[in-house]
Specification:
Blueprint lengths: L16 E6 L5 E6 L2 E6 L2 E5 L6 H9 L3 E3 L6 H9 L5
Antiparallel strand pairs: 1-2, 1-5, 3-4
Length: 89
């Protein structure tokens, strides 16, 4: 017998995500994060955790806007690169 799963906003296992924001001069910035969690399912809300010492943290604090992207396995190499390079450079 098949078990039918209902739609859910739970993220299990917790994926790595890519968070995009923008610098004051308009340059886009992206950071990879593994700390993401479900805050509420209705309405759907997620939380992220960004270390204050990172370049991205300053941009997020200044702009107060970001986009959370949940990429598939096809973007693994790009995610790896984004996780190793700083937008500060």
């Amino acid at each position: 017998m098949k078990k039918v799963q209902q739609p859910s906003t739970a993220l299990f296992p917790v994926p790595s995500v890519m968070v995009t924001t923008v610098a004051a001069d308009g340059r886009p910035n992206i950071i990879t994060l593994a700390w993401v969690g479900t805050v509420c399912s209705n309405p759907p809300m997620l939380s992220i955790s960004v270390r204050p010492a990172t370049y991205s943290h300053g941009l997020l604090t200044a702009s107060r806007e970001f986009v959370l992207n949940i990429p598939g396995a096809g973007l693994l190499k790009q995610m790896d690169m984004c996780g190793m390079v700083s937008g500060r450079d």
